[in-house]
Amino acid sequence: MIKSTSIIIILLVLFGFEAHSQFANQEEYQAWLDSLAKENYIANTILLEEVNVLSRSGKEKDFYEYLRGNPMNSVDDFVHHLPGMNMSRKGNYASEPMMRGMDINRLEVNIDGMRIKPACTDRMDPVTSYMEPNNMATLELEKGSEGFKSASSTGHGLNFTTKSPVFDRSRQVKGMVGLKYGTVANEFSQMGDVNWNSKGSAVRFNFVNRWAGNYYGGEKTLVENSGFNKLNFSLGYSQQIGESDLIKIHYIQDEAWDIGYPALPMDVSRASAKMLSGTYLRSFGAEKRNSMDVKFYYNTIVHIMDDSKREDVVMHMDMPGETQTIGTIFSTRLVNQKGNSINTKVELYNSYSFAEMTMYPEGQSSMYMQTWPGIRQYGFSVGVDGKAALSSKTRVSAGLRLEVAKMYMEEDFGISQFDVFGKENTEEEFTPLPTVFLGLDRKLGSKSNLGIRGSYGVRMPNNSEKFGFYIFNSTDRFDYVGDPEIQPENSFKLDLEYTYQSSRFTFKVTQFNYYFTNYILGVSDTILQAMTPGAQGVKTYSNTSNASLNGIELFSQFELSPKTGLIATINYSHGNDYEGEPLPFIPPFKMMASTYSRLKLFTIQPEVVYAAAQNRVSEKNIESSTPSFWLFNFKISKDYQFNNKRLRGVVGIENIFDNLYREHIDWGGIPRPGRNIFVDLSFSF
Question: Exposed, middle or buried, 338 (CB in 10 Å: 0-12/13-18/19+)?
Fold first, then answer.
């Protein structure tokens, strides 16, 4: 059963951030400690807008299997199926998540609630590139400013929670290994996940290793400079303390090298992320219904761009960048007997970002600049939210969050760069970033629900918008310069949603509306001269008066029989800037539909994807129209169960007809992969 006021799409909730606060008695609490193992290694739970899945039976299991796909899928494969989500590509690696037509400038992407600052000025390393489904337990989507659990934003964002070591009295050691091969890029992937537990202690290690060559777009179009190598691994330790306490330590490291980005003028020789966290959790009060936790974390990102393997380069450049973030989070959850709840969260963080560029003109001395001149940001936030039933048919949710943050340059060299523009370093200014939201849900009958949610949010300008110095954007071929005096961006959001659910049919439609003030946009500056060879000019990030974004999301699932069903999603967004012109990178109408049939010997799943043409383009950003396209995919899977072990095989074909296409949100006109035949094998023990 799905229990929520908003039903989107879910995989499975076996252990989530609320699990330890809802025990009816001590026996149930102990069962929780033991049940942390119950298939947690495949807990690709999706928690979307407070949706809880209580079991794997029926439609929840069907959709879990549908979204999970083959065990070796990447995060990119996983996220792009979700309502309201798209993945913008610059090649075959590190796609950038987009939500409702908003890119990562307006989204906050966290891992286990930790703030993480990407280190690439060209947005080649979104936080999603440092995660793998193999170490992902849940994915929380926060749409709008109800992002109580994340940082201040106007979008809002995603939070990945990682798999924890688990306790299982029946098996001391358990795990999974897997292999995958795909033809379109000659890509090999391997994974492993092993959990050991004994007497209140548990250790878990998992890894994923991928390598790929240049891939082929449709009609056998070779896409040069698109290969990559990647190794991701994590190590976790959990320790029970008495009956109510748990300590967790978790470390993730992601290493990628020789990464090609065909849509950009530079590749990446190395991208490295290291993330460490420690968490103390405690359940308390009558029937262990309440909880608190304290988390300390540290992460560092290193990203090195270079063009040494490119041919016909006008001028060679080196562009390394790095970030470091440290923080602590304290949160509590209180639940009464009626199920009403109140949450609090306090956070303190400190981050540092630095990026530089050295240019080597032929026959001349090298030139040096700091593209992110030692940017320091730190802040403090406190928030409270809650849910309560006003009657048997009406439920209200509300929240208030206030963050104060300071952001300034630390490098004298970088400060002097902006002196020529007459811009001051706003070192002494603290900026308030409030968030307010209110939601109301009303049951219209035993099977339908109507909801309305409104919010107001403010976001801090990001590193490039405030202090970026001559950062080249290959999509419009302009150099971009930040403004140290730029103001925060504000957003007002209103969602209207209708949900219907019966024993065999689920339907949800959401109409969303955003209105932005002080909207941050790159505006052409005819006075400044471009620095990058081939650039068409310079744009400075500025506060424009307003912008609007609205659209619709639809999800439906229909059980045709106990073994056959249909799942479909529809997304559409429409955006205008302050002059009524189209916002850039707005995806067109898109539909995905899939059927699943569990036959006697196999499970088969055909899928069709349709995207309409996008002719409503931003001329200011030199956008081009994109034609419509159809895609057809198919896969077949088989499970073999024996002696508490499972062997799973998946064979599939993506883009069956080898169509040559690209999505409107992709950079540089680079085609997406053509026909891909893949084989995926996994063994659970």
Answer: exposed
